From TrEMBL:
PANTHER family: CATABOLIC 3-DEHYDROQUINASE. It comes from Saccharopolyspora erythraea (strain ATCC 11635 / DSM 40517 / JCM 4748 / NBRC 13426 / NCIMB 8594 / NRRL 2338). Pathway: Metabolic intermediate biosynthesis; chorismate biosynthesis; chorismate from D-erythrose 4-phosphate and phosphoenolpyruvate: step 3/7. Belongs to the type-II 3-dehydroquinase family. GO terms for biological process: amino acid biosynthetic process; aromatic amino acid family biosynthetic process; chorismate biosynthetic process; quinate catabolic process. It catalyses: 3-dehydroquinate = 3-dehydroshikimate + H2O. This is 3-dehydroquinate dehydratase. Pfam families: DHquinase_II. Substrate binds at residues 68, 81, 95-96, 105. It is an enzyme of class 4 (lyase). It comes from the Bacteria. InterPro entries: DHquinase_II, DHquinase_II_CS, DHquinase_II_sf. Catalyzes a trans-dehydration via an enolate intermediate. The keyword Glycoprotein does not apply.
Length: 141
């Protein structure tokens, strides 16, 4: 799980928009979801784009990824390039329905590279992404 800026304070960040679940709780739910595949969750959250890039470069050994880029969806070109070289499938997730919000949230520079995208379902979206990732990974191999 790779989470971008401002997602480390989930639970106390605009709860009306992002819900009350913490990132740790979401990661726990994802861990339970993927346990049946024998997978473990590596959960990384960084507020800086460079640190997210470094985390991607250090994660080529993972089976796949769930990525919430936060506001880097809008212009995170370096993040996009790092994901382009990530050798495994990944799913983009947004807690909120970005298309029901301000127009500056309507474009994602990373979305064209994702296997799929889930938005608007809160923390549950990460669980759905985990299920989808398992399908994609198993269909690839
Ligand atoms: C977000 C949506 C982004 O527009 C926003 O900048 C975030 C969170 C979401 O999960 O809904 O930080 O990615």
């Amino acid at each position: 799980m790779l989470n971008g800026p401002n997602l480390g304070i989930l639970g106390r960040r605009e709860p009306d928009v992002y819900g009350t679940q913490t990132l740790e709780e979401i990661a726990g739910a994802v861990a339970r979801e993927v346990a049946e595949h024998g997978w473990e969750v590596r959960s990384v959250q960084r507020d800086c784009e460079g640190e997210l890039i470094r985390a991607i470069q250090d994660s080529y050994d993972t089976v796949g990824a769930i990525v919430n880029p936060g506001a880097l969806m809008i212009a995170g070109w370096s993040l996009r390039d790092a994901l382009a070289n990530y050798p495994r499938p990944w799913i983009e997730v947004h807690l909120s329905n970005v298309w029901a919000r301000e127009s500056f949230r309507h474009e994602s520079v990373i979305a064209p590279l994702a296997s799929g995208l889930i938005a608007g379902l809160g923390g549950f979206g990460y669980q759905l992404a985990a299920r989808a990732l398992a399908e994609v990974v198993h269909n690839r191999s």
